[in-house]
Amino acid sequence: MAVTIREVARATGVHVSTVSRTFSAPHLVNNETRERVLAAATEMGYRPNQAARALTTGRTHNIGLIVSDIANPFFPPLIKAAQAYAREREYHVFVADTDEDPQAEEELIQTLTKQVDGVVLVSPRLTNQAIERMGLELPFVVVNRRVRGLSAVLMDIGHGTALAVEHLAGLGHRRLVLLGGPRASWTSEQMKKAAVEAAGRCGVGLEITGPNAPTEGGGLDAAAEVSASAATGVIAYNDLVAIGVIEGLGERGIEVPRDVSVVGVDDTVAGRLNRPKLTTITMPTPAAGRTAVDLLLQAVDAGGGRTAAQAILETGLVVRESTGPPA
Q: Would you say 214 and 183 are in contact if contact means Cβ atoms under 8 Å apart?
């Protein structure tokens, strides 16, 4: 038979309401009493009724996590870290995938609104105006997008892109191509700005193409443009695009890195298993997942009001086999 809240109260010598507050509003219970109640609850196997808890607190203890493409290996480490951190805070995570479709993204947000206490949007494809509007109804945290009035977790892709340009220029490449991502991608725009600035500093030519699908197929399609250009260095929107480019160039008899050097973004398992192993910009995806959930729960604890905290996470460059001096 399940242990009741009254049994925990009797075992610890406190009122039932104190046990209830220990789980629903722990900040209202002094430390000694809270620790005593939690220890007894654990020992007795007591689990609070989540439905009743939601009625008394007005919280579901669920959060939504919406990503643009769950099949992209960039997202699973972020999702896993977000879920683990949420579990530590006694929250559950509903994960949803928009398949790069802004309309599906909006529909998912509307569906989740009454089932969660807040939403983390990762690499959204909606317009800022649409996100701002929906952020009036529910606490939001956005990953890799700046939206006025909302908290954001930003991976400094501009810094990583500059490192990639400097790396290729240092190897002796004089003409580069940047393969941009989807039209609505904040990351793609930041990469373009940083690449233009870095190319100017390094005295190298830069061609920007796109939008490109953020997939291996997008890289395969872009390989034709790369092979037709005079570029000997490529910076791709992500590792999947980079892998597709390498495959497409190989089909045209162009070898990487002998003829063309290729840099990806994300440092995914796919890039490390590829041959040649991919030189890539490292993205702190697990840290982004944890930080996004933390900022979201801060907003929830503050009563759901709009907050505009911002966390900027560092990126880097890991050099492997897909880059080398030009032939």
A: no
179-193 pLDDT, tens per residue? 999 988 999 999 999
Distance of CA 126 to the CA centre of its chain: 15
Tokens linked to 225: 């443009």
State pLDDT tens for residues 255-287.
Answer: 999 999 999 999 999 999 999 999 999 999 999
* Cβ atoms of residues 219 and 242 within 8 Å: yes
Angle at 151 between CA 149 and CA 157, to 5 degrees: 115
Q: What pLDDT is stored for residue 225 in this prediction?
A: 93
Per the CB < 8 A criterion, the answer to whether 181 and 189 are in contact is: no
289-303: string of b/e by CB count within 10 Å (b at 16+)? bbbbbbbbbebbeee
Cβ distance 271 to 278 under 8 Å? yes
Q: Which of 103, 98, 54 is nearest to 75 (CA)?
A: 98
d(CA 227, CA 186): 27
